[in-house]
Every structure is written in structure tokens, then in C-alpha cells.
Amino acid sequence: MAAKVEIYTWRTCPFCIRAKSLLSSKGIDFIEYCIDGDETARAKMAQRANKRRSVPQIFINDYHVGGCDDIYALESNGKLDELLAAGNGA
Question: Is the Mitochondrion keyword given for this protein (predicted)?
Fold first, then answer.
């Protein structure tokens, strides 16, 4: 079963582009919520992301991974593939 990956982004955010690039390079399909200027959507994201309001915010199987640096840290530690392969998240 493929992991459910969700990412909150701004269209021109370089960190968002970089995080999406990593996921795409791994062949991972993801749901993108582009929240440019939408404070209601940003508030919803922050509620899910432990009050973090920066973008991107990434979720794998409803587990809050964090932002761009966090997903790259998981990748460099060899833990991202495990998380993506897990049927129920962390």
C-alpha cells in the first residue's frame, strides 16, 4: 500500500519546490495544498502541524514530518524510505 503524502506549499517557495523535487525523484505521488495567501488554509495547516506556519509542511500517512530540512534529514539518515513504505506512518 502506497503512503499517503500531503504537502502544504506556496507556489514560488524554493523550499517547497525542493521538497516536492525530492518526493518526485523517488516516484512518490503526493497531494499538494497550495495555500498562497489563504489564511484560512494556513490556519488549518498550522493546526495539523503543531502550530508551525512556515511552508512546506509535509505529512506522511497523517504523521507530521515537518518541513524541507526535516524531509531531507530523513532522507540522509535512510529513514524516509521506511516511512514511505510503512502502511500506517510512524
Answer: no
